[in-house]
Structures are given as structure tokens and as C-alpha cells.
């Protein structure tokens, strides 16, 4: 259910949140068996990680290193 009250039906929902936030905070308590919720509560979270991939048309330039290209040497002056 969205903030405006509308609902989107789906057979599968993916969550980018950690297991505790997903299973304990985002789902109503009666959605999952109590044993499963307890197991989720006991998961030890040791930190977070993040990775993002971009599809770009060309390599970006940097004001600190104009003309530099990834994987190539800096052009001679």
C-alpha cells in the first residue's frame, strides 16, 4: 500500500532494505509466522554495503584531471 492509500498487486516484491527492516518493519506482523519473525529479529547486522552501476555514453571528465581517461595514460602536455 502506498502513502496515498492506493495498492499495487504483485506476485513478487523485492526489497532493497536489510532483512530486519523488510520483515519486521515493512510487513504487517500477522503476515509472517512468529517463528520466522523471531529468527529475523536475531540476525546480526554487521554493516551496510552499496554498489551502483551506470550505463553511460562516454567517460566523465574531471576538473582536477582534464582530458584523463580511465585505463589510459594522461595525454602529454
Task: List its salient traits.
mainly alpha; 77 residues; single chain
Please describe what this structure looks like:
This protein has a domain at 1-45. The protein is built from two helices and no strands. It has helices at residues 19-26, 34-41. The radius of gyration is 22 Å and the shape is elongated.
Strand content: under 5%
| Oligomer classification | single chain
Q: Distance between termini?
A: 59 Å
- The percentage helix is 10-25%
Helix/strand structural class: mainly alpha
Characterize the largest beta sheet: strand count, sense, and whether it forms a barrel. none
Describe the SSE topology.
Elements: H1 19-26, H2 34-41
A few lines on this structure:
With 77 residues, this protein is mainly α.
Amino acid at each position: 500500500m502506498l502513502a496515498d492509500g492506493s495498492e499495487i498487486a504483485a506476485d513478487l516484491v523485492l526489497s532493497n532494505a536489510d532483512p530486519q527492516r523488510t520483515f519486521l518493519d515493512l510487513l504487517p506482523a500477522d503476515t509472517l509466522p512468529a517463528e520466522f519473525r523471531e529468527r529475523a529479529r536475531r540476525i546480526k547486522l554487521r554493516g551496510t554495503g552499496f554498489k551502483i552501476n551506470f550505463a553511460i555514453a562516454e567517460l566523465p571528465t574531471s576538473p582536477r584531471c582534464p582530458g584523463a581517461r580511465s585505463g589510459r595514460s594522461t595525454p602529454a602536455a
